[in-house]
Amino acid sequence: MKKLFSLILTVLLTMSTLLSFSFNAFANTQDKADSISLGQTLNETVDSSSSKTKYSWLKFDCLSSNYYDFTVFSSALPPSDVFLTVYDEANNVINSNVNSDNQYSFVSATYFVSGKTYYFRVECLKGNYSFSASLNIHNHNYTNVFAKAVADDDKESRLNGYSKFVCTLCGDEYVSKNIYAPSTVKLSASKFTFSPYGIYPSVAVYDSVGNLISPSEYTVTYDDNFKTGKAWVYVDFVGSNYKGELTSSFIIIPSKPTPTSLKSKKSKQITYYWNKDINASGYEIQYSTSSSFSKSKTKSCIISKNSTKSKTFSSLQKKKKYYVRMRSYKTIDGKRQFTSWSKKLSVKTK
Questions:
Q1: What pTM did the predictor assign?
Q2: Averaged confidence pLDDT in the chain
Q3: 214: which residues sit within 8 A by CB, 6+ positions away?
Q4: What is the pLDDT of residues 84-97, one digit of tens each?
Q5: Does 114 score more than 50 pLDDT?
Q6: Residue 133 class from Cβ within 10 Å (0-12 exposed, 13-18 middle, 19+ buried)?
Q7: Which of 39, 150, 169, 323 is the most exposed place for a label (fewest CB within 10 A)?
Q8: Which tens digit of pLDDT belongs to each residue from 254-310?
Q9: Ramachandran region of residue 229, left (φ > 0), alpha (ψ -120 to 50) or beta?
Q10: Which pairing describes strands 34-35 and 55-61: parallel, antiparallel, or unpaired?
Q11: What are the φ/ψ torsions at residue 296 (nearest 5 degrees)?
């Protein structure tokens, strides 16, 4: 047991020594890093065959928060890939770059924070590589990037657009204009009365944050708007800021029905007549002894065939005045959509 404990202790001490050596080697490398100042150029060499010169370390003490360009330049092409790694003072990698195309120079643009120290490590995978390293304030080379906002009836498929400027060298960007996705189509009304000339509700389109979108950005087309039932509005975005399509719908109900007469030809009986409406699905008729059609004195019935033109009501009170009115309906999406009531007619039963 003592031998086993001694062996374990020896292994732990060995591992501890190796870890300590690895950490100290990295720390010592940082300690020996040459300082580089803003605008300064240093000549350096790395040699992949030498453990002492395998890496070149440079240190920079940042005095002002900004983007900085670290440029590596050689008068001869590198013998293999050259890696640049940028560390912060906590040994975190904050940027990296590689010259894999055997170019004479390459640049790494990195944002540094004032009051902190940063380290650059240059490594060449094969052979000897002599280079000059320089550090300068980065000058952004912005280019405009534009994306249209995408309209879609499916909320999950909508995308906001933007106009932004992106630096081609460091990737820094700022948005100059947000273009929010179109999301809502509002019509002048949701229900209209049939017209043989078609129904064309006015359209207003809003984006996802409630801004009104200019009509110059879209075209509007209508479908099924020459008949009763459900009609559609299609908004196609063809302008400079948006693309895609939104749809909306409205309903067209029949015109108010036209009753023609109300007669009592037999005792306790009345017959109601009207003009049929081929645009309706059917009719509802109310008859009452109350001129105001109070609920307690009123009865109603549904006529489910639009070709029907009359209805007789029997078993009424004799010598009693009755009032009758009607309205048409169109069944849309399984629901009866009614017109307003017609004018009332009255007659006294025999």
A1: 0.70
A2: 91
A3: 239
A4: 999 999 999 999 99
A5: yes
A6: buried
A7: 39
A8: 999 999 999 999 999 999 999 999 999 999 999 999 999 999 999 999 999 999 999
A9: left
A10: parallel
A11: -70, -20
- Residue 161 corresponds to which amino acid? G
Residue 199: per-residue pLDDT: 98
**What is the rounded CA–CA span in Å between residue 70 and residue 47?**
20
Residue type, 254: P
283 close to 302: Cβ distance less than 8 angstroms: yes
> What's the confidence (pLDDT) of residue 305?
95
**Any idea what the Cα angle at residue 217 is, between residues 214 and 218, rounded to 5°?**
110
Alpha carbon distance 21, 4 (integer Å)? 26
Name the more confident of 322 and 25.
Answer: 322
Measured between alpha carbons, how far is residue 113 from residues 36, 61, 68 in Å? 16, 10, 10
Residue with tokens 């005095």: 63
Whether residue 204 contacts residue 212, with contact meaning beta carbons closer than 8 Å, is answered with yes
Q: What is the mean pLDDT of residues 73-82?
A: 93
pLDDT at 129 over 70: yes
Place of tokens 């017109």: 339
Instruction: Take residue 163 and report the two structure tokens written for it.
Output: 């106009």
> What span, in angstroms and rounded, lies between the C-alpha atoms of 56 and 246?
59
Neighbours of 175 (CB within 10 A): 11
- Measured distance CA(261)–CA(145) in Å, rounded: 72
What is the 3-class SS of the chain, one letter each residue?
A: CHHHHHHHHHHHHHHHHHHHHHHHHHHHHHHCCEECCCCCEEEEEEECCCCCCCEEEEEEECCCCEEEEEEEECCCCCCCCEEEEEEECCCCEEEEEEECCCCCEEEEEEEECCCCEEEEEEEECCCEEEEEEEEEECCCCEEEEEECEEECCCHHHCECEEEEEEECCCCCEEEEEEECCEEEEEECCCEEECCCCCCCCCEEEEECCCCECCHHHEEEEEECCCCCEEEEEEEEECCCCEEEEEEEEEEEECCCCCEEEEECCCCCCEEEEECCCCCCCEEEEEEECCCCCCHHHEEEEEECCCCCCEEEECCCCCCCEEEEEEEEEEEECCEEEECCCCCCEEEECC
pLDDT in tens, 189-203: 999 999 999 999 999
